[in-house]
Structure formats: C-alpha cells, structure tokens
User: What shape does this take?
Amino acid sequence: MEAIGLYRLNELVKQALQKNLPGARWVIAEIADIKENHSGHCYLELVEKREEGNVIIASSRAVIWAHVYRLLKPAFETITGQALQRGLKVLLEVEITFHELYGYSLNIKDIDLNFTLGNLERERREILDRLTREGVIDMNRSLPFPDLPKSVAIISSLTAAGYEDFVKQLRANAAGYLFHTSVFQAAMQGEKSAESIIDALERVHDSGEAFDVVVIVRGGGSRADLNCFNSYDLALNVACFPLPVLTGIGHERDESIVDRVAYKSLKTPTAVADFLLKVFQEADSELGERQARFVRAMKQSLQEERQRQVTRAIAIDRQTRSLLERQASRLAGASREIGRHSTLLLQRHVGTLARLVGLLRGQIATRFSRRAARLEEISRGSRARVERVLAARRHSLELAATKATFADPRNILERGYSIARVNGKVVRDVSSLKRGDILETELLDGRLESEVKEIKDATSPARE
Amino acid sequence: METLTYKEAMEEIEQIIEKLEANKLDVDELGAKVKRVAQLVAFCKARLHATGEEVENILRSMEE
Assistant: This one.
C-alpha cells in the first residue's frame, strides 16, 4: 500500500464526511466550555455524558461564527432567561466540518430554544420537587419575621447597580428610620455566582452579628445571568438559612428557584428596601395608634376617677352633714336634759336656800325680837328716867320761861310797870337822879317825858 | 428590662391600655403607668429611628 501524506489523508476524510454526512443535522449536546473571541466568534466544547456516573462518552469542538452568534446569543438569552454557558444541554443544528489543519469541528447554525426552555423547565421542576421532597422548600418562608428588621446583611456586589439602589432607598426614608447594614460581597453574575453567594451566606452566618434579615440584591443586569438563582445548591442554602432571606434580583418573568424558597422575593432592590421600610411604617403607625389609644384611655380613666371623686365627695358631704346633724340634735337633746336637770337641781338648791334663809331669818327675827324686847325694856326704863329728867327740866324750863316772861319788859309793862330812862339810861335807883332831869318813861303803848321834881329814897320791892 | 424587645414593649403598652380601658387600673398606678408607657414608647421610637447605640442608651435610662 502506498503511503500518503497527512494532508492527503485529511483531504480524504473531509471528502468522505462531505459525501456521507452532508448538510445540517440536529444534535443534542452539553456545553462543556464556551468562549467568545475578540472578533465575535464563539468557540465551544460539546460533550455527551452517560446518564449514570456523569462520565463523558463523547466530545467535539464547535463554533458559532460571529454573524450567526450576533443573532443567536440575544435571542437565546431573551427567550430562555439564561446565557449559553457551561453545563447547559442544548439542541443544535450543526454542519460537520473538517479542516485539514484544524480537524473535526461542528459549525453551529441554530439552537432550538424550545428544547432549552423545556429542559430548563424540567430541571426547575426537578429541583423544586427535590427541595419539596427534602422538606426544605418552605423552611425560610416559615421563619418568624422580625418585628423590626433593623439589622440587615446585604449580599451583593458593590459594583452592582442594585446594591446602590437598595442602600439609597433604605437611607432616604422620610421618617428617618435607621438601619444597620453590612455588606457581604459576592459575585452576582457569572458561573461562580451561586458558589459565591453561598459563601457570602456562610460568612453572614459566621459573622456573629445579630442580623435580622438577609437581603440578596443585584441590579437588572443581563437576564442570562439569572441562571445561578436556579441552582439547587444555592436554593438549598437560602431555604435552610436561619434568617429570613429577601431577594431583589431583578427578574422579569418566571421567578427563580431562589426567589421561590426565599422568605420574600421582590422584583427590584428598591422594592426590597420599600418592603423593609413598610414594616417600620406599620410599626410606627401602630405605635402612634397605641399612644393615642393610651392617651384616650388615660383621659377617660381620669375623667371617671374625677367623677367618682365628685360622687364620693358629695356622699361624704352628705354623710358628714347628717352625722353633724345627728350630733347636733343629740347635743341639743343633751343640753335640754342638762338644762332640765340643772333647773331641777337649782330649784332644789334654791328651795333649800330659801328654807335656810327662812330658817335664818326666823332665828334672826327671834333674836332680833328678843333683842328688841330687851331694848324696849331698856329703852322704856331709860325713857322713864329721861322723862323724869325731862319733866324736871321742863319744869325748870317752864319756870325759867315764866321767869323770863316775867322778865320781859313788855310783860312787865303789860302788868303796869314802866321803864324810866335818863339820857337813854335805865334808872334803877333814885340816887342817880337829880331834880330837873328829864325822865323818859316807857309804857306799854308809848313813851312820855317828865321832869323830876322830887326825889324820895325808898326800898324798891320791884328790884329783881 | 435589659432584654426588652420591640415586640415585648408593644405588648406591654397594649396590656396597660387594655387594663386602662377595662378600668382595672388603680388611681395610684396611673402616674407610674403614664411614665412607663412614655418610656416604652420612647424605646419603640428609638428602635424605629435610632442607631443601636442610642437604643442602648434608652435602655439604660429605662433601667434607672
């Protein structure tokens, strides 16, 4: 047999392939590797695995030329919600090519989107079934939600737009609710994102910080990157996490498996922040309500108490009044009694006194009368004596009076005597007279003057 | 008091209100309850608005 060159051999292979396997055909394969180069061509490594044991039983290089890839890639991502990536099983329309230098390769002309969709859906259902079987699917949802999710662990990428949206929304609340947030960085897209997020969850768990909730957010990047959120491992970790996990991963259509197992899944990071804020707002308004209710009840209570006091005061007043009245009437009664008793007593005393006075008076009267009698006696005796004396005196007085009467010149004159005066002097004896004297004679009813003619001496019987 | 949670504070407020509404509070207790509710409300407000440190301060002041 004549030997030929390698190029010739490859040429023969190429011809044989073109002749025996012409045109395009549909092939099911799994993407084992995929790379885009700078000129927009996409190079893939396709494999087939034996169902049991995950052993690769076939492999082939494949390429999507740039002019095809430009159309296929967005269509695939838009419809299936994920990127063409490693591990994905696809139904491809391929042409077998053989190049003398580069060898065997499949030229991918089209991808069956329905196959991928169906596959994804089946996978999804399988994962959900498995999580359900394992009893973890509703575990996170059954956790008690904190009264105030104040301390928030954020799993995101600092470069992700969603992270910023979330933090901004949370901080910019008008009521001024304050949150404590800690970021646990993770790759939110790409092949390793599921692993990276699981790692972040573990770091949250191991941080020792008392978080209230975990929030997984990312911005609305390529829909293709959502595939990690359909990973069984990540879903399992989220479902079993001991704190409520909130997701805001910006999906538009079907919710991912992680969304399904999370405590609460929201469409965007902003919506997650709003959800947390709403808890605070509700708590706040409940607090306000309670405060108002308390004030109302307190006012009511005080009002009632006041009323009770007024009633009580009135009752006390009434009771006091009636007590006072009773006391007063008792006092009045008592004083009347005392009055009566004392009057009686007084009367008795007065009677006694009167008796005593009578007695006394009697004694005194007796004594007086005795004395009076004695006095009378005495006075009678003395009066007799006095009378005797008086009579004697009277007699002598009468005598004297008689004498006096006799002595009165008038009496004398009446009886016929007269008084002779010379030169105003009474003539007692003739011796003092001489003849020729003018003798004045006083009679009872007048005077006369005479001249002495003769003087005779004689004894005057009228001389006294 | 030192381990008071938001929920417990709210429950205590509710209990006091219920007693108050049912007229089961003594007049002598009213003053103390007003003070207590004011403290609890302050604590809850702080939980809503304040940082962790401020909440700690309020907790401390409530213990006094």
Notes: Chain A has a mean pLDDT of 86. The first strand of chain A starts at residue 24 and ends at 36. The first helix of chain A runs from residue 6 to 20. Chain A touches chain B through 25 residues (CB under 8 Å).
